[in-house]
Amino acid sequence: MAESPPLPDSPPINATTGLIRKILVHAQRTLGAGILVTLPIGITVLVLKFLFDLLDGILKDPLGLLPGPEIPGIGLAVLLISVYLVGIIAAHVVGRRLIAFGHRILEVIPFVKSIYGTTRSAVELLSNNSDSRYSGVVLIDWPRSGIKAIGLVTSRMVDTNGEEMLAVYIPTTPIPSSGFLVMVAAKEVTPTEMSVDDAMKVVISGGIL
């Protein structure tokens, strides 16, 4: 009776386990790298789509009453043109007076003034050249020792004892205009090489950027 051919040797269990582990590690790293690339892009697309739909919808319904076919994005286009026209008006003396009058009205209406004032302060803070208004970014113990907060140095002075003092503005997240102003000895703060713009990005984003 003929002997059966020998069966091929099975791969060692340890080798198989190691191969599976390498595949899983490779897949995990590759998927992680893919997520790091696609997630910010996906979030950006979703945010842009949300803003587009929001801005387009502001004037889309009133424009829908006009005869003719509905044009995608017409509301956003009209809104941008309107904002541009407001900018032209704001560039002239008469326009600035009208806008200032509108500011005063909005700032005396209950509830509206809190929303408008906060929003206006935040916009002005972001639109101005921050580096020219502050002389540096420091880390300061706030609200207690051991906890560091980002501070913007607004001015420097010397007290009656000859010690250098700093006026430090501590912006809050996510609206930096509602911060705190503290006077602190220069030796009590930690200087940084961070620019004011970078510091504001960190504050507004809650440390994400």
Q: What attributes characterize this protein structure?
A:
alpha+beta; 209 residues; five-stranded antiparallel β-sheet; DUF502 domain-containing protein; membrane; transmembrane; SH3 type barrels; 54% helix
Written account of the structure:
It is a single chain. This protein is α+β, with helices and mostly antiparallel strands and 209 residues long. It has a domain at 130-205: SH3 type barrels, CATH 2.30.30. It has helices at 13-64, 74-90, 93-106, 112-127, 130-133, 196-205, and strands at residues 136-141, 148-158, 164-170, 180-185, 190-191. The chain has a five-stranded antiparallel β-sheet, with helices on one face. The radius of gyration is 30 Å and the shape is flat. The N and C termini lie far apart (78 Å). The model has no long low-confidence stretch (mean pLDDT 77). This is DUF502 domain-containing protein. The chain crosses the membrane at residues 31-51, 71-94. Keywords: Membrane, Transmembrane, Transmembrane helix.
